[in-house]
Amino acid sequence: MPIKNYLSSTHLAKHTAATLNSLESGEIDKLIILKNNSPKAILMSFESYEAMEEEIENLRLTALALSRIQDFDPDQTISHKAMMDKYTK
After folding, report:
1. In terms of Cα–Cα distance, which of 30, 23, 24 is closest to 6?
2. Averaged pLDDT score across all residues of the chain
3. What is the CA radius of gyration of the chain?
4. Which residues share a beta bridge with 42?
C-alpha cells in the first residue's frame, strides 16, 4: 500500500479536519492509522464504508444462494399455490 495511505495517530489528532476532508473529497480512499509504528485502525469515508458493507452483503447472499442450489431437493419443495392456500386464508 502506498505510503500516503499511512498516517500516525498523532498527525491525525493534529489534522483531523483536513484528513476528513481528504477522505470525503475522494483525494484519499482509506488511511491506515498507526500508533507506535503499528497499524491500529482504518479510516475511510462513510460512502466507501457503505459500498464495502453492501458488497460484503451481496457476497454473503451469493454464497447462501449457491449453497442452497447445491442442497436443493425438488421433492421437499412446496408449490407456490400450496403456499398461497396455506397463508392467505
Report:
1. 30
2. 92
3. 23
4. 32
Q: Which amino acid is at 28?
A: I
Give 88's DSSP letter.
Answer: -
Contact yes or no for 51/65 (Cβ under 8 A): no
Task: Give the Cα separation of 14 and 64 in Å (integer).
Answer: 45
Pull the grid cell for residue 31: 488511511
| Digit-coded pLDDT (tens) for 23-64 | 999 888 899 999 999 999 999 999 999 999 999 999 999 999
pTM for this one?
A: 0.67
The three cell numbers of residue 42 are 482504518
What the chain holds in terms of domains, given with CATH numbers, is 3-72 (3.40.1620.10)
Q: How many helices (H) and strands (E) does the chain have?
A: 4, 3
